[in-house]
Design brief:
Layout (H helix, E strand, L loop, with lengths): L1 H21 L3 H5 L1 H19 L14 H7 L5 H6 L1 H4 L3 E12 L5 E5 L7 H4 L11 E6 L11 E14 L7 E13 L5
Parallel strand pairs: 3-5
Antiparallel strand pairs: 1-2, 1-4, 2-3, 4-5
Helix pairs in contact: 1-3
Length: about 190
């Protein structure tokens, strides 16, 4: 369906632009900007829905949620990133703070799993280093309700290996990806 919208938008946009410049389409001539903006929006909506940059081929779990959670291992970010191929398909448990929610089908979360709980004494040490963000892409297949940026979450899912994408800055980003089957939002202050 979304590919159809892209093609339809292109087929309408090109003649509209040509007609606008030649003066043949009186409707577009009088309302050219809004018509072109509407057509562009249709194309962008269609193209966004057509591509899922983070596909997940992970089959849904067959065991109970309790069994799945008990079998999931808490694997540090470094291992998720370095040993992605050997850990692919593993049941994992991660927790962190949601730094971005990408609404869509499916919804994608960017979750920072770094531990920022630093004591004042530790921060005063001469060899102290500020922790670097440890971002994991999370493809949501749970039914835990709406998650917001800033929420602290606990996730149980399947490690999908690495996923790459190119943001608006143009440089390729590669991060570990987890398909979440169970998600809990932690209470504020925890």
């Amino acid at each position: 369906m979304s590919e159809f919208l892209i093609i339809l938008g292109i087929l309408i946009l090109i003649p509209a632009l040509i007609g606008l410049f030649r003066g043949h389409f009186s409707i577009l001539k009088s309302r050219g900007r809004s018509a072109i903006a509407l057509l562009s929006a249709l194309i962008l909506m269609g193209s966004g829905a057509a591509m899922n940059p983070f596909p997940s081929s992970t089959p849904p779990p067959t065991e109970s949620p309790e069994q799945f959670k008990a079998a999931a291992a808490s694997i540090p970010f470094d291992r998720l990133a370095r040993e992605a191929e050997s850990l692919k398909g593993s049941k994992v448990h991660i927790s962190g703070q949601v730094i971005q929610v990408l609404e869509g089908t499916p919804t994608i979360l960017r979750v920072d799993t770094a531990d920022y709980n630093i004591s004042p004494e530790e921060a005063m040490k001469p060899d102290f280093e500020v922790p670097t963000p440890q971002i994991v892409l999370v493809v949501r297949k749970d039914n835990a309700g709406r998650v917001l940026e800033g929420d602290k979450v606990e996730i149980w899912g399947i490690h999908d290996g690495l996923a790459s994408y190119v943001p608006w800055t143009g440089s390729k980003i590669t991060l570990p990806q987890v398909t979440a089957y169970y998600l809990e939002i932690k209470p504020k202050g925890s």
